[in-house]
Amino acid sequence: xxxxxxxxxxxxxxxxxxxxxxxxxxxxxxxxxxxxxxxxxxxxxxxxxxxxxxxxxxxxxxxxxxxxxxxxxxxxxxxxxxxxxxxxxxxxxxxxxxxxxxxxxxxxxxxxxxxxxxxxxxxxxxxxxxxxxxxxxxxxxxxxxxxxxxxxxxxxxxxxxxxxxxxxxxxxxxxxxxxxxxxxxxxxxxxxxxxxxxxxxxxxxxxxxxxxxxxxxxxxxxxxxxxxxxxxxxxxxxxxxxxxxxxxxxxxxxxxxxxxxxxxxxxxxxxxxxxxxxxxxxxxxxxxxxxxxxxxxxxxxxxxxxxxxxxxxxxxxxxxxxxxxxxxxxxxxxxxxxxxxxxxxxxxxxxxxxxxxxxxxxxxxxxxxx
Length: 370
Prior knowledge:
- GO terms for molecular function: polysaccharide transmembrane transporter activity; porin activity.
- One of its GO terms (biological process) is monoatomic ion transport.
- It is found in: Cell outer membrane.
- Pfam families: Poly_export, SLBB_2, Wza_C.
- Keywords: Cell outer membrane, Ion transport, Lipoprotein, Membrane, Palmitate, Polysaccharide transport, Porin, Signal, Sugar transport, Transmembrane, Transmembrane beta strand, Transport.
- The protein is an alpha+beta fold.
- It has 3 domains: about 25-50 and about 245-335, Outer membrane lipoprotein wza fold like, CATH 3.10.560; about 65-75 and about 160-240, Roll (Outer membrane lipoprotein wza fold like); about 85-160, wza like domain (wza like fold).
- The chain is about 30% helix and about 25% strand.
- It is rod-shaped and about 100 Å long.
- It starts with a helix and ends with a helix.
């Protein structure tokens, strides 16, 4: 009787397990059909060639704002805190008043905070705002009163009046000077050195005159990118955000489920599945490959569940053209036999305990009958 009871209990648990077998399972059979509030909050969309074509038609390519492309820097204009080196040929007392044996910086001429500088024989000169050629000509003209046909040359030893600030996921954050060579966004980011592991390449922001301009640093890989043509000016700020808040979550019956970092603005479904080692060939249900999007805003709009029938490897041709978005959840459901095997693996220890108890009870009954 005890053995029969054990079998009955095990059968009952097994029957219940068929209805509520362990492991996650996404049931889409009633989505949009039963009229329940839960159903109305989910929209099931098959991934088909037609959907791919529609997405491609509506996709907007990242572009550089026209006002940024319109800015073209002119000749460098001297400013406060710049250090100038002025050469008057055949007149070392004017070129290197501290002595030729001194470091070249020791003979530099500092432009004061008020924009003026002192020069022998001439006195105070308002240098700020003048180009190098304008200041050179001004000094040469004034020196003609004291020097016969002065030959004057002028260069900037240290650029300090115009600068940009770069911060975020870079290795060399801080200020960069603007020099006589115009500085582009690409050159500035190259000097600052992007942190390749932690940077959100698609999230670069340029702040100019109180306005923010989004730029996509990853677009440099695209044909015809205009990012090389964006020049910086004094006071610009560049910020490259970290990618720690932009993830793709891959879970379910894949070989290495985990969160993937979303570094750029393009990651397709095949990329994500390939990065985690592909589908588990012994436990996955190829018809249960889902991309869940918008789960974080269910209070305001329904989540979209995109389904790809990946039972055939050829389906991944569609996966290579289905672009993911940050915070997407990629879920691969288990095959029916997988769920049953997991149930059995949990029931076997219970069956063993019941069997041991039944055997012990039977032995006690036999002993008492003797």
